[in-house]
Every structure is written in structure tokens, then in C-alpha cells.
Write a structure and sequence with these properties.
It is built from 18 helices and 22 strands. The chain is an alpha+beta fold and 608 residues long. Strands 6-9-10-22-21-20-17-11 form an eight-stranded mixed sheet, with helices on both faces. A five-stranded mixed barrel has the order 1-2-3-5-4. Helix 4 (141-163) crosses helix 17. The longest helix is centred in the first third of the chain and has 23 residues, at 141-163. The two termini are 59 Å apart.
Length: 608
């Protein structure tokens, strides 16, 4: 950016270079660092655009005296002359590293007090201090650059979506509460005492209504609000997503529209990291759970799990064989570990499993002894040479490789098996660094059994179209649990490097199927009409087949910035307790405000 001359600056702190040598300049910014070099004072002046080195000579007494006293992070304005640095003092890592400015006049625009946390050097600092003084934290180079990167990414998303024929619309922030999904943030109504608005968990119903209204292709960088606990990949309270909806589409049409946008975006900001040119793999949910133990697989890790139950049935390894004999739903899964064929590594994995609350992690490792490849370890000894070789052959393992085993009902151990796969891939250096690997996860279950409430629940988005013959669906007996739990939906996620970027679905646009879906989940027609009446009523007047998706902006930026916590890419995040330490939110309000809202606070129950 070229600075338009003003009273405060003729240039910014990132643009002066050799062609400016000899020019008189005015700069303004923050005192980033101050150094005394025996008679000369040096200040690195910082603004949004970069750093410029200032030189203060005692010859200019007033400016030199101010420079001696000024504290770090004070805001100053200087006038001076640009000179070339001597060859030995040039800084090739700095955009302005070929020059420096000899200061003739200095003005302190705002004096900084003693800092509660340092800006220069960016040492680790307690999170509560960083969040309370976020305006100072945001001056630090890494975080500052992350936020600038976020702005560029959002601008690129908007350009790409508009170029793809999508129109940007803004949907309401004050809406109605929904019985499904996470907990709502409620907003009391002054004009309608006893009633509440809700902040939208997502613009789900509104974007579907836009399709009914005939707008065909919609997007929005949408704020979403969910009253849920914080975690590393989700900020408490609010987050932003690229909300998308399309008319007259099937699942593959959505993939074809969104995939180029995401691929192009990641290519633009990859900064040397690999982005696959080929189409993103499509993996069914059930297959993903079996191969990776997760519906968010990190495909940079090449390890794929396989069922090896038949090799243990009736074997001498009674721990597994007994479970298989007593329960037809018990399976044994193998977690291959190429290059992991040492007892030391296998013992480390076993110890890790025990630290995770598991009884252990059985293993076989393969080595060549006396010219023959053989399996070693307690399991190999118990099941014998023939079964051990059959396992090795099935998994394609060789000399110096290992395999780990988990046994039980898959729904109970799949998550742990997936964690073991991730750990083995990381410890053995198998997980590719410097790359982004995407995949689509498809065919999610439509319903699931809620063991606590002893009822069928929606397992994902209640507005999704079942991937099931519509006439058979309408005729389903809600008590036919086996059939109901087998139904998948046109629901899909997009995953990158083990992080879920988005969920999406082809929508249920037929009222009779929507009524039936909610009936199966235990909701009567009156509930559907009360909670979703606006959308349901719209569907009775001609609704196109439609579908959409909503990639998380915060998670995209987190991946591209190369950080592991969302708070490193959000301007003003809350802490883990959903508190804004800088602004003091949430906070008590005046009694008058509560009276206006017809609200009386109940006594707070003390936690034991």
C-alpha cells in the first residue's frame, strides 16, 4: 500500500526502500523496540504495515531527549531524512532493511504506561492476561498477521463465491428458538413480556426459505451463536461460517460447486504447502469409522485399519477368541504400523493405551530371523505361525513392521482405535507434513438410538432428505428400530487434516416426509408446526429440491495460519468459561433493565 500523505505520515512503516533515499519523510507508529548504541539511539517504529528503523543523534537535542524517555508501545510521530544503511547493517529479512531514517523532529502522540505483557519478542504469557489486554496482544506480530490473513481469506472467499454465481444475502439475527441442536442464546422481548428471541445457531431455515423464494444460489459469511462449552477447534458463544445453499441440486452438484472454491482458497494461501489437485475422496461414514476410527479422518496418515476377526476366532489367544465366541457383534480390528517393528515401540504404544484407561494394546511385530520372516510377541505365540502369516499377508506388512489389535464391539472401541492409529502415524513419522488432505464423508445415519432416553433421535441435521425410498419411508413403523437405524441421509461433511470444516445436506423439501421424520424422532405434527411452521408452510407452496453446506471460517483460517487453537485467529475471543475478560462480559444489568423486560432473577443455587 502506498501511503497518501497526511499530517501524520507521508509513508507507512513498511514501504520505504532504496528509491526513497534522500527523501524527507513523516512517519507515525508505535515504539516497537529501543536500543542505545553508544551515543546513538535506535527505535524500531511499527505500524500495521511493517517496521522502519529510526536513528536519533544527539545533534537533534529535542528529538534525542524525547527518544531517551519514551517507553515501548508509546505512539510517536517523527520527521526525518531517509538514508541508506551501510552494507554491514542492512537487514535482508526486513522490507525496509536497506534504509533507516535520521530523525530531526519527534512528537509523542500518546505515552504508554508500563506494559502488562510484552509486545516485542512474543514470549509465552498466561492466557488470562493475553485476553484481558487483547488490544496489546493483537499488536504482537504473529497474532496481528493471523488476523490480517483472516481478512484476506474472507475477501478471497467472497470473490470466489460471487464468481461462481452465488449471491450474498444477510439473514436475521433475532429469530425463534429451535428444539434441536445445541443450546440457544435467548434474548428477552420487551414488547412481548415472557417471550424470547434466540440468536441463530445457523441461518438454516432462512437459507432454505431463500431457495423457496427462488434466489437459487445464496451465500453469507454468517455469524452463528451456540451456548456450549469451549474447545480448541470451537470458540464459545459465537463463530462464523461460509453459509451456502443451492437449488435444483443433488449431493454431487454441491460437491462440484464447493470443491473448487476450497481448493482455490487453500492454493492461494498454502504458502508452499501441498494442496491436492485431484477430486477430494468420497468416503462413506461407515467405511470411515472402520478404516480410521473417526468421521474426521486425517488422510495425511496412510494407516488404514482392517477387521481380522476370522484370524482370532477359535484361536489360542483366549482373550479375543472367548469374546468372539460369546458375542456375534464382537470384532477384532488391526491397526498396521509400518516401520514400527520393534519391541520398544510396541511397549510404548501399549503403555500409552493403558494411560488412556484401556487394558492394553496387543501387538505382533515382524522380523527376519535366520533368513525367515516371522511374527514376534505374545499374540503371535498364542495364535500360531499360520494365523500370524495370514494377518501379515492380509495387511501387506513386511520385515520391520508391526500391527496392533483392539477387540470388542466396534461402537465401543472405534474411537480409541482411531486415536491409536493417529498416535502410531505421528510417532513413526508416517503422517505427511506440509500438506492439506481433504475428503468428503457421506451417508451419515439419519437416526440413532438414545440409550439414556430409550428413544430414537436425529443423529445429524433433522432437515435432511433420507436416502431411502420415499414410499417405504412414509410407511415405516416408528417401532421398527432395526430398519430405522439402517437409514442413511444425504448428509455430508468436508474434512481437512482431521478437522471437520463443515456439515451439509440435501434438504427434506417435502412436508409429508418431514412430518414422518419428526414422528420417528418422537415429535408430533403440532411440534413441527410450532417450531418450523414458517419453513413447513413455505414448502406447501412449491419448494425446489435444494441443498447446502457451511464451512467454518474460523477453522479454515486456523488451518491456513498453521495454529491449533481458534483463539489465535479470532479478534476478541472469550476464555474457556465463555467470559470476555477485556469487556467484562457477561455482566449484571441494572434492576430497571430487568423490570423493562418483565424479568425477575431466581436465586442462584449453590453448587455442592
Amino acid at each position: 500500500m502506498t501511503q497518501t500523505p497526511t499530517k501524520y505520515r507521508t509513508h507507512n512503516c513498511g514501504e520505504l526502500d532504496t528509491p526513497n533515499v534522500g527523501a524527507s519523510v513523516t512517519l507515525s507508529g508505535w515504539v516497537h523496540r529501543k536500543r542505545d548504541h553508544g551515543g546513538l539511539l535506535f527505535i524500531d517504529l511499527r505500524d500495521n504495515f511493517g517496521l522502519t528503523q529510526l536513528v536519533f543523534d544527539p545533534e537533534h537535542k529535542a528529538a534525542f531527549a524525547l527518544a531517551e524517555r519514551v517507553r515501548a508501545e508509546s505512539v510517536i510521530r517523527i520527521e526525518g531524512r531517509t538514508v541508506a544503511r551501510t552494507p554491514e547493517t542492512r537487514n535482508e529479512n526486513l522490507a525496509t532493511g536497506q534504509i533507516e531514517v535520521i530523525v530531526t523532529l519527534m512528537e509523542v502522540l500518546s505515552e504508554a504506561q508500563e506494559l502488562p505483557l510484552p509486545v516485542f519478542g512474543e514470549p509465552d504469557y498466561p492466557e488470562d492476561i493475553r485476553l484481558k489486554y487483547r488490544f496489546l496482544d493483537l499488536r504482537r506480530e504473529t497474532l496481528h498477521n493471523n488476523i490480517l490473513l483472516r481478512s484476506k481469506i474472507i475477501a478471497s472467499v467472497r470473490r470466489r463465491m460471487t464468481a461462481s454465481g452465488f449471491n450474498e444475502f444477510q439473514t436475521p439475527i433475532l429469530t425463534a428458538s429451535s428444539p434441536e441442536g445445541a443450546r440457544d442464546f435467548l434474548v428477552p422481548s420487551r414488547l412481548h413480556p415472557g417471550k424470547f428471541y434466540a440468536l441463530p445457531q445457523a441461518p438454516q431455515q432462512f437459507k432454505q426459505l431463500l431457495m423457496v423464494a427462488g434466489f437459487d444460489r445464496y451465500f453469507q459469511i454468517a455469524p452463528c451463536f451456540r451456548d456450549e462449552d469451549a474447545r480448541a477447534d470451537r470458540s464459545p458463544g459465537e463463530f462464523y461460517q461460509l453459509d451456502v445453499e443451492m437449488s435444483f441440486v443433488e449431493q454431487e452438484d454441491v460437491f462440484q460447486a464447493i470443491e473448487p472454491v476450497l481448493r482455490g482458497l487453500f492454493e492461494e494461501f498454502a504458502d508452499g504447502r501441498e494442496v491436492p489437485a485431484k477430486p477430494f475422496p468420497r468416503i462413506a461414514y461407515a467405511d470411515s469409522m472402520r478404516m480410521y476410527g473417526s468421521d474426521k479422518p486425517d488422510l495425511r496418515n496412510p494407516i488404514k485399519m482392517e477387521a481380522v476377526t476370522q484370524h482370532f476366532a477359535g484361536s489360542g489367544f483366549k482373550v479375543f477368541a472367548g469374546q468372539i465366541a460369546n458375542d456375534p457383534k464382537v470384532e477384532v480390528w488391526a491397526i498396521p504400523a509400518p516401520t514400527g517393528g520393534s519391541r520398544a515401540f510396541c511397549d510404548r504404544m501399549n503403555a500409552w493405551a493403558q494411560g488412556e484407561g484401556q487394558p492394553g494394546l496387543g501387538y505382533i511385530f515382524f522380523r527376519t530371523e535366520n533368513g525367515a520372516l516371522e511374527g514376534a510377541g505374545p499374540i503371535a505365540k498364542n495364535i500360531g505361525v499360520e494365523r500370524t502369516e495370514a494377518i501379515r499377508t492380509q495387511l501387506g506388512l513386511g520385515d520391520g513392521d508391526a500391527v496392533f489389535f483392539v477387540c470388542g464391539r466396534p461402537e465401543k472401541f472405534a474411537s480409541f482405535a482411531g486415536q491409536a492409529r493417529v498416535r502410531a502415524g505421528r510417532e513413526l513419522g508416517l503422517t505427511k507434513e506440509g500438506a492439506f488432505e481433504f475428503c468428503w464423508i457421506t451417508d451419515f445415519p439419519m437416526f440413532e438410538w438414545n440409550e439414556e432416553e430409550k428413544k430414537i433421535d436425529f443423529s445429524h441435521n433433522p432437515f435432511s432428505m433420507p436416502n431411502f425410498d420415499h414410499d417405504r419411508f412414509l410407511a415405516l413403523d416408528p417401532a421398527d428400530r432395526e430398519t430405522i437405524e439402517s437409514i442413511t441421509a444425504f448428509q455430508y461433511d468436508i474434512v481437512c487434516n482431521g478437522i471437520e470444516l463443515s456439515s451439509g445436506a440435501i434438504r427434506n423439501h417435502k412436508p409429508e416426509i418431514m412430518y414422518k421424520a419428526f414422528e420417528i424422532a418422537g415429535y408430533g405434527p403440532e411440534t413441527v408446526e410450532e417450531k418450523f411452521g414458517g419453513m413447513l408452510n413455505a414448502f406447501k407452496y412449491g419448494a425446489p429440491p435444494h441443498g447446502g453446506i457451511a464451512p467454518g471460517i474460523d477453522r479454515i483460517v486456523m488451518l491456513l495460519a498453521g495454529v491449533e487453537n481458534l483463539r489465535e485467529v479470532i479478534l476478541f475471543p472469550m476464555n474457556q468459561q465463555a467470559q470476555d475478560l477485556m469487556m467484562g462480559a457477561p455482566a449484571e444489568v441494572m434492576p430497571k433493565q430487568l423490570r423493562e423486560l418483565s424479568i425477575r432473577l431466581a436465586p442462584i443455587e449453590k453448587k455442592l
